[in-house]
Amino acid sequence: MDMNHSATNLTLDALKSVVSQALLGKFTAVFPKLFKCQWKTYEGQKKLYANFSKDTVSNMSGRKFCVGGNWKMNGDQKSIAEICKVLSDAQLDPNTDVVIGCPAIYLMFARNLLPCSIGVAGQNAYKVAKGAFTGEISPAMLKDVGADWVILGHSERRAIFKESDELIAEKAEHALAEGLKVIACIGETLEEREAGKTNEVVARQMCAYAKKIRDWTNVVVAYEPVWAIGTGKTATPDQAQEVHAFLRQWLTENISKEVSNTLRIQYGGSVTAANAKELAKKPDIDGFLVGGASLKPEFVDIVNARK
């Protein structure tokens, strides 16, 4: 009986293995990039990116340029496939990190179409792993479908959905704990700028993040003056640099000199191929968070602003 039982177990194990491999083969045929980039282990991907980063050259500050494309609530399978093809075929600057903020339901679709060198981000995530939060998405869910970044604190989340500084900071804390990298957005409204409160506002927003974030290694801050988002108005390179320099000083005084020197600060707000090169020349601007232009072929020129 024992021999028959053992033989049966071996047969079942062999059958399971065959079925498993067949299903895995079918899955990887449908989602080859997702499997290649991320499905095996997240640790393996971290090592891949770590090795890749060692072979690339950062800017003079030691901070690698980082450009994010925030597609917001735009796109369908046809248009996303077209954008992904443009990015896949383009000669993108290898010294620039590229991240695409894709609508949640298209994350796996985009991950499958984009090269592994381009990161994929959720545009929002909640502050806990699971539960009765209808309509919300957790960082664990984003990771499960191939995302490795999340955009948090965007002005549209703050203004339209009334997200507070405190809630956004809690979201960032949980996303980082779950292994996502975070693009943490800040920025002032037109009224606040005209009242001379720009520094006060961005300092308040940074304080909220600082209360919850202990390790800034996987954080990129995106300074986006609200008055320049989608309006066609852009802060001049000098205006943007002034705020970025203030943020760098704030980091020195409130967190550490090391974080101030290493944390990347993007500029966002009507960035286009026409103004990207001038903005990219500023010493404290380490990249861009791009809205509408990231849906167009000119996004390639923005990514290559320092090339």
From TrEMBL:
Which CDD domains does its entry note? Answer: TIM
- Tell whether Repeat is among the UniProt keywords: no
Isomerase: present as a keyword of the record? yes
Membrane-spanning residues: none
Q: Name one GO molecular function term.
A: isomerase activity
**Which EC number(s) does the record attach to this protein?**
5.3.1.1
Subunit details:
Homodimer.
Q: Which family does it belong to?
A: Belongs to the triosephosphate isomerase family.
Q: What is this protein called?
A: Triosephosphate isomerase
Q: Which organism is it from?
A: Drosophila arizonae (Fruit fly)
